[in-house]
Amino acid sequence: METVTLDRKTAEDLVNTKISLLVERINKILRKWNYDDVDKLLEDARTGKIEEAEMDAISLTNLIDQRKNLYSLKRQWNRE
Question: At what angle are helices 38-47 and 8-32 packed, to 10 degrees?
């Protein structure tokens, strides 16, 4: 892996933009299934209540993990 140097403001802008895009994609999936709660959608997909949502549930889980990682990175920056 190659290391790239960025000024902090640019890095923060990039991370914030990525978070916004992830949130937008998460909300799009929630709207598609008429849900407003991620956990409820994931639970209903897992239990088979909405069988057709399996692929979206997988995508949703990945998007949430990415968002958590970026929020974690921002928290690290704020401690520095």
Answer: 50
Cα(61)–Cα(38) distance, rounded to whole angstroms?
9
pLDDT in tens, 29-73: 999 999 999 999 999 999 999 989 999 999 999 999 999 999 999
By the 10 Å C-beta count (0-12 exposed, 13-18 middle, 19+ buried), 17 is classed as exposed
Question: Where along the chain do its domains lie?
Answer: 13-79
Whether residue 68 contacts residue 19, with contact meaning beta carbons closer than 8 Å, is answered with no
Query: Global pTM?
Result: 0.89
What is the pLDDT at residue 78? 85
CB count within 10 Å of CB 22 equals 20
**Rounded CA gap, 20 and 34, in Å?**
20
